[in-house]
Amino acid sequence: MSSTMSATTGSARRDVSSAEQQSTAAISLVGVSKAYESRSGDSVLAVDHIDLTINQGEFFSMLGPSGCGKTTTLRMIGGFEEPTGGQVLLYGDDVTDTPPNRRDVNMVFQSYALFPHMDIFANVAFGLRRAKVAKAEIATRVNEALELVELGGMGKRKPNQLSGGQQQRVALARALVNRPRALLLDEPLGALDLKLRQTMQIELKRIQREVGITFVYVTHDQGEALTMSDRIAVMNGGHIEQLGPPKEIYERPATRFTAGFIGTSNILEGTVERMDGGLAVLTMPGEGRVLVPVNGSVIGEHIELTVRPEKITVCAEPPENGCALPGTITEVVYLGTSTNFTVTAADGTEMVAYVQNAVSADTDLDRGDRVWLCWPPEHGYALGGSGNPS
Amino acid sequence: MRHRLATALTPYALIFPGGLWIAIFFVIPIVAMLSLSTMSGNLLTGFSQTFDFGNYANVLSLYHTQFIRSVIYGVIATVAVVVISYPMAYWISLYGGARKPTYLFLLLLPFFVTFVLRTLSWEFLLSDQGLLLGPLHNLGLVPQDFHIMATSFAVISGLTYYSVPFMVLPIYVALERINREVLEAASDLYANKVQTFLKVVLPLSLPGVFAGVLLTFVPVTSDYVSAQILGGTGQVMIGNVIETLYITNSEYPQASALSFILMAALLLGIFGYAKALGTEDVLEVSAA
């Protein structure tokens, strides 16, 4: 089933090599802004001059807290909001003023927005019927799409006879069946429970791989974005904070916002005392020793760095080399596979360390114990503007 | 144990006041009327139960003209109300924005004036020397024998006028219940505005139209005020006949028989209408 679907869905114009695929821009936003009039009459900038290129066949996520402009941006790509500035390009064509019904993109809505008075077949067939596709072809394609989302044989049911997860998949089939040039998804898994959400994440990724359509995915759930995306745009306050593959976003957050929003981060700051090879050595109160890789010499500069909790080990004695910070354990949370320690340093800074329970020697540590937090310098990352190594 | 008993009795306790009310003021009178409709006699000699079903045949042959007229007026007025009200409800719901409550209030404003007075003001407006026709007659713009009062048009207009809010409100509620993302989805799936309306908005608002038709057709068909004030001898409706038989002529058995025929006809009409629309579907959609 899956092979036939991908064969029929990848129409001729998209039949390009994967190398070319990566270089073709499916969607381009050029200086796109959206201003709203607030109740008090002020103009509020929901999206602030965004420049963005989404490649063909890519799973692209826009991630950020509510009000960061991610949904507004998605709705402008879909044609549901008109930008107050800039251009939206779809495969190079300016579609800024094109209404949604004449744009070759389809949307999966947060509420699924299924037509409650139509059965599942009619829901999925809606777009094809409007596009005047031949009757026989509609039947074939609708059934294929329902098979793809594993809802074969459900065509006669009404939306309210399906579970939330099934409705979600109908919404997906209803959009995909039109073979859009891009699929827009607005927090599609938001209403599902955790377990179903995790299953659907894997499902979505599988479907995206099978049909090869560009997915633009909006979410506030960082786990979701990291799991599925080829690239993530982290958004905040109407602009893009950072854009890159999940690993880069996680390992090398460009800003304090990204570091804090994606996963848990320990953020340290200090003044660079001296350079040690490519490492900046920070002045630390007490016996602490913090080094971080930087570009060039940044002596005297104040820098912020982040260390992920899972990169930190909890030791009884300071190691010979690498970073080490003394502190007192203030919280121990045992999670089965790992233990989370909260350690408060002498200056009051709280640090978090996740220790895998494969090494059981450390698990008898308890609150009030004096310990050292240790990590190799290369696992620290200096935040934006403070001489990041590229 | 006592707690469980209280729990078991709670639903009955809740239904009791309303149930009692309906028993006293609906069931008893209707049984009394049913009994009355087969009696014979007159006011002077008194009425006695003779199970005379001839009353029914009698009133049907005497008043079938007014009966048919009422149904025709009722249907025309109901259709007119739908045609006028749907766009109003649609506009308020989709384009009313922050002013929706104001528009709904304006819609209900006429209710603050009594029903009879509202209809009388129509007379003032439509009579031959009234606000509308007076100047037209004087200027010779319409022939002297042109009237609006005492025409079917006047009666149906009156019926239509005061039913509009009863139609707008349920349609408005049905439209409000439509998830706006569903409309966006239709547009996303290549439907233009007309298609979105015909394929999505209209079917989803039908439960509101259904409720509105019930609220309009029944009172309009049995109405007697509009015909009495705005109509003439040629516009007498079944409601007027029943009123005259009962209050003026004291022909209680005939009036009762006529009332039951009207009731049966309305029920039949409504069930037929529900069947034609597919109530189950309508109920299903309204429950979704």
Task: Note down, in words, how this protein is organized.
The complex is a heterodimer of chains A (390) and B (288). Chain A is α+β, with helices and mostly antiparallel strands and 390 residues long. Chain A folds into two domains: 2-104 and 180-259, Rossmann fold (3-Layer(aba) Sandwich), CATH 3.40.50.300; 266-382, OB fold (Dihydrolipoamide Acetyltransferase, E2P) (Beta Barrel), CATH 2.40.50. In chain A, 25% of the residues lie in helices and 33% in strands. Chain A has a six-stranded mixed sheet with strand order 6-7-8-3-9-10, sandwiched between helices. In chain A, strands 13-12-11-14-20 form a five-stranded antiparallel sheet. In chain A, helix 5 crosses helix 6 (164-176). The longest helix of chain A has 18 residues, at 194-211. Chain B has a single domain, classed as MetI-like (MetI-like fold), CATH 1.10.3720. Chain B is globular. The A-B interface holds A 78, 80, 99-102, 106-107, 109-111, 113-117, 126-127, 130-131, 158-160, 174-175, 178 and B 179, 181-182, 184-192, 195, 199-200, 203-204, 281, 284-285, 287-288.
Shape type of chain A: elongated
Beta fraction of the residues of chain A? Answer: 25-35%
**Helix and strand pattern of chain B:** HEEHHHHHHHHHHH
Termini gap of chain B: 39 Å
Structural class of chain B: mainly alpha
Uncertain segments of chain B are: 283-288
Largest sheet of chain B: 2 strands, antiparallel
Number of strands of chain A: 20
Largest interface, per-chain counts? A-B, 26 and 22 residues
Spatial order of the strands forming the largest sheet of chain B: 1-2
Strand proportion of chain B: under 5%
Instruction: State the CATH topology of chain B.
Output: MetI-like fold
CATH-derived architecture of the largest domain in chain A? 3-Layer(aba) Sandwich
| CATH architecture identity of chain B | Orthogonal Bundle
Which range best describes the helical content of chain A: under 10%, 10-25%, 25-40%, 40-55%, 55-70% or over 70%? 25-40%
Order of helices and strands of chain A: HHEEEHEEEHHHEHEHEEHHEEEEEEEEEE
Name of the CATH class of chain B? Mainly Alpha
User: What's the CATH H-level superfamily name of the largest domain in chain A?
Assistant: P-loop containing nucleotide triphosphate hydrolases
| Overall average pLDDT of chain A | 87
Radius of gyration of chain A: 25 Å
